[in-house]
Every structure is written in structure tokens, then in C-alpha cells.
User: Which sequence fits this backbone?
């Protein structure tokens, strides 16, 4: 038997190296199982990097996972749950992406929390340059008017959005405010010294 240290907490676990090879492989890098996480999902790498910098400016110790589309986001979410035994504090989600779009991610996560008998799921901040609508008029879904689409969800427009007035918030300063709200809670947020343009 050997002892390994997990993160900064100093907690030690006894692990039988001969029977738990998968754990040995995954524990090569120390992990703080009490760390909070955020998942950033956007098909544009520059946007993911900008949002990640905003999050780190708000909360330097938070662990950030990135995904380029919805299917990859579902894999990252499984990794977060397996590694940290908890959901992320927040998902920042683009709508218009290849492979699996943000609408499908929202639908999947809503089904998940409803199947678990809960009234709400992981907080989502939709960050998009689209109209925020999907589908033909009679069957159209909208992140702006359909309050039952997902709870809790906030919409923030990217700088390139043509219909910013339809969103709950616009620009990086207001995005930073919502990030602080979900990551730190509703207390008075501390200021962020830099903001990064989201194109």
C-alpha cells in the first residue's frame, strides 16, 4: 500500500497500486477535489481564451475546462464530474456551433435535471452573436422569451451581435458581472482590472 496526497487539503488516501491502475494513471497530476470548476464552450478558440481570462481575473483558483462544440462539452462535463465529484459552478455556452450546438446542450442538461427531480440545473450563461432564436416561426425556440427553456440561464451578447438589445446583458463587463455572480455568489463583486474584447 502507498499513500498519495490530493491537492492542497493534505488529505491522504491509501491506494493499492496493483489493483487500481486507472487511479494511478489519473493521479499523476495532483487534483484538489474541492476545487470549483467552470466549463467554457465555444467553437472559436479566441473567444474561449478571452472568457477564460475573464474568469481567472475574477477567481484565480478556479479550474477552467474548454470545449469547441457541444459533444466535446458533454465529454468535459463527464470528466469534471468524475474528477471533482461535482458539477461546474457555471457553463458559458455559445449557441451556434458545429457537431452539437448550444441548443442541444441546453436540451440535454434540462432533461438531465428534470429526470433527477430537480427544478434547476447547472447555471448557464449563453454567450452568442446570433439572434437567440431557433426554428421556424410556429415551432421557434428563443433564449429570450421562453422562460421554461432552462433554469437558471442568462443571455449575454457578443460584441459582434446585431441584436444586443434582446439579450439580458451585452459586452465583457456585463459578462464579468454574471461570471462573478455564479462563481462567487450574489455578494458585492470585487472589480476586475482588465477586460478582453470578445469578437
Assistant:
Amino acid at each position: 500500500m502507498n499513500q498519495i496526497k490530493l491537492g492542497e487539503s493534505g488529505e491522504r488516501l491509501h491506494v493499492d497500486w496493483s489493483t487500481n491502475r486507472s487511479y494511478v494513471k489519473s493521479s499523476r497530476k495532483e487534483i484538489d477535489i474541492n476545487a470549483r470548476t467552470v466549463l467554457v464552450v465555444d467553437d472559436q478558440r479566441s473567444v474561449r481564451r478571452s472568457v477564460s481570462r475573464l474568469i481567472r481575473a475574477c477567481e484565480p483558483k478556479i479550474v477552467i475546462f474548454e470545449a469547441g462544440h457541444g459533444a466535446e462539452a458533454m465529454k468535459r462535463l463527464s470528466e469534471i464530474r468524475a474528477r471533482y465529484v461535482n458539477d461546474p459552478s457555471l457553463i458559458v455556452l455559445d449557441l451556434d456551433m458545429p457537431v452539437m450546438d448550444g441548443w442541444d446542450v441546453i436540451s440535454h442538461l434540462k432533461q438531465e435535471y428534470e429526470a433527477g427531480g430537480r427544478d434547476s440545473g447547472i447555471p448557464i450563461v449563453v454567450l452568442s452573436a446570433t439572434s437567440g432564436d431557433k426554428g421556424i416561426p410556429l415551432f421557434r425556440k428563443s433564449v429570450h422569451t421562453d422562460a421554461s427553456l432552462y433554469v437558471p440561464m442568462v443571455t449575454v451578447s457578443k460584441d459582434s451581435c446585431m441584436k444586443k438589445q434582446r439579450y439580458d446583458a451585452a459586452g465583457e463587463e456585463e459578462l464579468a458581472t454574471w461570471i462573478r455572480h455564479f462563481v462567487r455568489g450574489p455578494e458585492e463583486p470585487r472589480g476586475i482590472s482588465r477586460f478582453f474584447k470578445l469578437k
